[in-house]
Predict the structure.
Amino acid sequence: MVFYCQRHSYEKTYTTKVVACNPAKLDVVENSKKKKVDCYETTFEDTVMFPEGGGQPDDRGTVDGIPVLRIIRKGGDAVHYLEKPLEVGSLVTQEIDWIRRHDHMQQHTAQHLITAIADSIYGYATTSWYLAESVSYIELDTEEIPDEEISAVEDAVNQRIRDATAVYVKEYDASDTELKEIRTRGLPDDVVGPVRVVTIQDVDANMCCGTHVCNLADIQAIKLLHTEKGKANKTLLFFVAGARVLRYLGECVDRERHMNTLLHSCPSDHLRLVEKKQKDLKSTLRSLKEALKDLAVAEGQKFLAQDPRPKVYFHHRRDGDMNYLGAIINEINDECVLKVLTAGEDNGPGSLLVHGPASLVAQVGPG
């Protein structure tokens, strides 16, 4: 299961021979909807494209200009799903989406580093991890991680990056006894060929099928963001690494500048102003609630003052709610009058309340 992409993670193109190509169906997601698309299930003598595995998503790219939709591992084969067919036996050139690949390399090696440091300093074992499109997380076997410990782990991993610590890969036979001494969550049942061990010099050695940077300096930086409670007394530690750190910072700066405009203030004053506005909003909502209650009483009294009193009463208020409508009914307090009350915007969802004689309500309600 060791492919060219695993032995040469920094290579972007590769020429190889088509071994098989057959029509297939592939499940894809477009605009949050799943659908099946026609494609061609293709295998090659070898591949520069990483098939999904080890917590790392698959690569994207092209083969002789044909887009690759997905790559999965089946036993010892990397199966590529292409938009168009290729001739079996022909030589083709594979080209990866390097930005995607390098990002995955940075995040994956960062995960190994964070996992090793968190374990060595505090004994927190990693039970799983998830490489997402923007922010990834590591599941740690602990109920909580204090902020000071997060800071300590962050300082330690970034010091290793500043030290330009080497990362290298060694292949072992699956029966090699040395593998018993190396950290892993186990090998897949269908593992074929050599077993790869990724080593961060003087930090960690771990079985892994993924692609990695050759030196921690290539990660650039790691930022530990926050934690959330996971399942079964676990804690999720969220992080960004490499180019994602700059992208995350850029997004934060954009939001900060927008908040400067909205709040007419500098960033250091944002929290105080937002808390003040929340407090003011709560006070305003309380005042509005009281005002609507007074209006409801006034509307009810206005109806009661009519002589003769109508048998049917219609009323609508755009900024009303069910409490407002209920207060009018309570104020009128006349079961003989059919009351049809509505609240909400003229063109949009709203509330409807019908009250009065049961026989009339039954007629009005179903309509």
In short: Residues 102-254 form a domain with the Threonyl-tRNA Synthetase; Chain A, domain 2 fold (CATH 3.30.980.10).
